[in-house]
Structure formats: C-alpha cells, structure tokens
Specification:
three-stranded mixed beta sheet; 8 strands; binds zinc ion; Zinc Finger, Delta Prime, domain 3; Rossmann fold; five-stranded parallel beta sheet; 522 residues; Helicase, Ruva Protein, domain 3
C-alpha cells in the first residue's frame, strides 16, 4: 500500500474541519446560505494556512445540490465528482508554472461557456502573484465583467505583489497563522486516529516548529513518525529527527554570553555545528528562548504559557535574575535581526559568531543599546565590589549620549511629486527588495537632498556602505522605478552630524501624511 502524506490524508473536506480560520469560514458559509456569492475572492496568508483547502470546500459548497447550513453535503453527485477531481466545474491553476498571457487567455475563452452541470465554474489560481504583468492585465478584463456562473479564487502568499487594480475587484480574506494550541490539538487528533502514541511535549514541539502552518507541522510530524515507525513519539526523538536543540544548550550559551566568556561561547557553538544542527533554526529557537525568558521576567505565573518542564523553568527563573530587562530586549532584537539575515546568507556560521562576540563584548559597539548593556555590566561589578577603571572610550561614548536640546530641521518648501510617491509607497517598495537590502533599508530615514533627490540617511555606517555600492544602489533605484513608474535620483548617506537624524534631516515620512492603512496591508 502506498503511503499518503498526513496533510493529504487529513485534508479537511468540510468547513467544520478547517482549523484556525473561523473568521473566514463563517463569512463564506453565510454568503452561501444567503446566496450572496461574489465573483472574485483573494485569499492571502502564509503557506499551509488552508487557502486552497478552503477554496476547494467553497467550490464544492456553491455547486452542492443540497448544502447544509452553507456547507457541502459531501454525498450528492456534484460533491462526489469534485472530491474525486473529475468535475469540470472546478479548475485549479498553479500560476507558478502557468504565468503567461496565453494561460490566462485560455481561461478567458473557457469562461464563455456555461457549466454543463452544477451552478458555478470555479477557477482556483494558486500563487497568483507569479503571473506576468500581461497575464494580470488579461485576468483583469475577465474580473471586470465576469459571467454570473464564474467564480475566481485567487490565492497568494505575497499579496503586496498583486496589482491594486486586481485587489480592488476582489473580496479579500486574510488567513491567520494558526496558533500552537490549535495545531497541537489537530496533531493529537490525527495521532489518535493513526494509533500512534506520543508525548504531549513532543506534539507541542512539532506544532511550534511548524510556525503557524498546519501543512508544515503535519510534514514534520510525518518525518518523525517515519523515523521511529511503530514506536512511541517522545520529545527527545522529535528533537533528534528535527535537528533541534534542547533548552539546556540555550541556557548554557546564554550564561557564557552573560559572563562575557567569548572562548566558551564559541566552543559551545562549535559543538552545535559538530552535532549537525541547522544554524538558522538554532538562531530562531534561541530568540524564542530569550522571549520565554522575558515572559518569566515580566510575570510570576507564566508556567502555563511557557509549557516547559519544571527543571527548565527553574533554569529560566535563575537566568531571569541574572539579566537586566533592557539587555534582554537588546539580545532579542539582535537575534531577530540575525534570523532574517541568516535566511539569505551563505556565511551563517560567521554571522552567528560575530553576533555572539558582540554580545559578549558590548564595549566593541557604540550604540545606545550596547551602552545600556555596558552600564549594566559596570553596575554589577560595582555591586560585586570590583573597582572599576573608567576608560577613555566609556566616557567618550557617554558624552555622545548626553541629551542635546532638540532642534527641528527646516521644512522643505515643496516636495517633488516623485519623491512623495516613493514615501507613500515605501512599505511596498521595501517588500520588493531582496533580503539584505530590505534589512538595511529598515535603518534608513527618508529625507530630501537637493531639489529632486531622495536622500536615504542612516546612523549605521555598515548600512550606509552596504547600500552605497553601485550594485545595491542600482537595485534600489530599479525597484523604485518599477513601483512608481518614474526614475528618482537617490543618494545614500551616513548621518555624520553628531546629532540625532530627526534634528538634522527632514523625515519625509512624518511630513507626508502616509496612507498607512492601505500601505500596511500591502
Ligand atoms: Zn453536495
């Protein structure tokens, strides 16, 4: 007998089985009940959150001969044909491989014919953001005047890539990441049905590793089951199969960092590498560990939220006493940023090593955060009775941090239209950039340099240098030009005024009343 992947085997066949998207299911069911079905839907959200699953159930429900309370009956010939994939009424298209104008023209020609049976022809276009510009234009014509028997369901993980003209013609539904509780409950159900015993802790770990995606969680569960076929699934086995790291390792690493012990911290990392752990995952999980620590630090009764063994909780509580909240927040910020950078880097280990060294030696950095860290270190030494020699670098940096009376820069007389467009579309523009550029652009303030020049100014010398290379500068210009359909001259500059950016430069995002509602959604 061939093996069916769990996520296929347990794919929900009716609305009631879909987990974690109640807000969408209720609305769609009501539309069917009250016969207010739309002609174009856009389903957006991360992978594995149920977009195509719901699309298929919806396709069944609108065609069902006797739907029950907005749900497909599952037993009429139409329902059966759709479930078996033999119905001509449900057409699934993967836009990743069918993204050309011709593919969409074909659809437009087909759309002219009424369905031979059932009420609706439902076109499900997955990964719709992959369509070419020409294909989008062709699709738009159909969406403008759809025949009453046609429904389009467009699904995408990257909604910011969908042209506004398409967006404006669709009912939009945002699929949420599914909570760990919801996923864990579903995994338990499935394991029970499969007759597999598993520790609650093991299940929760798999659910957490799926990061909000039911499909990913089920695939991970598949891997674990396959590896230990016929055995009880324990927490340790799951950790082993998924190449994950036990909490103890994080605890040890954190303690070395707090003690400023570079050598030990790096040799712990060495150990992790030798064991074949995936470093990207290590960073994500370390960030998660720090987040737990923050929870423990902020409240006494976090046991339920944290869901960890009493031994680990005891370690965590001890560490919570060892670290200042500000320092902890700095660590979390650094590790979250690192986690983004690692996705696109081929030098994961070096990035991680540099980060660990920086955390061990905050005196190497001069940001305000690092300063807080250093003060915390000094305070501790004072408490411990160690005499502290105030070094030149410490005082120097402290002077830099002295409050300077705030001064507002002069407002520009007029902002060129194209620059204004860039500012309004900044979020969408950022989304179109490649990984590292996007990361560094987050550190940038948009300002005006000269009459028609968009000035990107940052306090971060590394960001300034990185963005200023001809290649990166070109990508930024190109993405801007593509988005607003105009060339804009840009200049990238480090803030060398010795004053905060907001006192030396006009922050255009504050001057121009950004349409945040719309831009956030993109
Ligand atoms: Zn039916």
């Amino acid at each position: 007998m061939s093996y069916t992947a769990l996520y296929r085997k347990f794919r929900p066949l009716e609305f009631e089985d879909v987990k974690g998207q109640d807000h969408i299911v209720t609305t769609l069911k009501n539309q069917i009940k009250y016969d207010r079905i739309g002609h174009a839907y856009l389903f957006c959200g991360t992978r594995g959150t149920g977009k195509t699953t719901i699309a298929k159930i919806f396709a069944k429900a609108v065609n069902c001969e006797h739907p029950v309370d907005g749900s497909p009956c599952g037993t009429c010939p139409t329902c059966k044909a759709i479930a078996a994939g033999t119905s001509m009424n449900v057409i699934e298209i993967d836009a990743a491989s069918n993204n050309g104008v011709d593919n969409i023209r074909e659809i437009r020609e087909e759309v002219a014919y009424r369905p031979t049976e059932g009420k609706y022809k439902v076109y499900i276009i997955d990964e719709v953001h992959m369509l070419s510009t020409g294909a989008f234009n062709a699709l738009l014509k159909t969406l403008e005047e759809p025949p009453e028997y046609v429904i389009f369901i467009l699904a995408t993980t990257e909604v910011h890539k969908i042209p506004i003209t398409i967006l404006s013609r669709c009912q939009r539904y945002d699929f949420h990441r599914i909570s760990i509780d919801t996923i864990a409950a579903r995994l338990s159900e499935i394991l029970k049905e499969e007759g597999i015993e598993a520790e609650e802790k093991a299940i929760r770990y798999v659910a957490k590793a799926g990061d909000g995606s039911m499909r990913d969680s089920l695939s991970l569960l598949d891997q674990c089951i396959a590896f230990y076929l016929g055995e009880k699934l324990t927490y340790d086995k799951v950790l082993e199969v998924l190449g994950a790291v036990d909490t103890e390792v994080f605890s040890g690493m954190l303690r070395e960092i707090l003690a400023g012990n570079v050598k030990n911290a790096i040799s712990r990392l060495e150990q992790i590498v030798t064991e074949g752990k995936e470093l990207g995952q290590f960073v994500n999980e370390f960030a998660w560990y720090l987040r737990n620590l923050l929870l423990v630090k902020s409240s006494d009764d976090m046991e339920d939220v944290l869901d960890m063994s009493s031994e680990n909780l005891a370690l965590l509580k001890e560490e919570a006493q060892m670290i200042e909240t500000e320092v902890l927040l700095r660590y979390i910020r650094i590790f979250s940023e690192l986690s983004n950078q690692m996705k696109y880097s081929s030098q994961k280990r070096i990035l991680l090593e540099i980060t660990i060294i920086k955390l061990c030696k905050p005196e190497m950095e001069s940001t305000k955060d690092a300063l807080v860290n250093r003060i915390a270190n000094l305070e501790q030494k004072v408490e411990e009775g160690v005499s502290v020699a105030v070094t030149a670098t410490t005082t120097q940096n402290m002077q830099v941090e002295k409050p300077i009376p705030a001064k507002r820069p002069e407002l520009p007389k007029a902002i060129p239209e194209e620059v204004e467009q860039v500012v309004r579309n900044w979020k969408a523009i950022m989304q179109d950039m490649s990984g590292l550029i996007r990361g560094y652009l987050r550190l940038v303030t948009l300002s005006l340099g000269g009459e028609n020049v968009l000035l990107l100014v940052t306090d971060d010398p590394v960001a300034a240098d990185f963005l200023n290379t001809p290649e990166h500068k070109k990508e930024i210009s190109d993405v801007i030009a593509e988005r607003i359909e105009k060339e804009v001259e840009i200049q990238i500059q480090r803030n060398e005024t010795n004053r905060p950016i907001e006192e030396s430069y006009v922050d255009l995002s504050k001057v121009i009343n950004m349409d945040i509602e719309v831009e956030e959604d993109l």
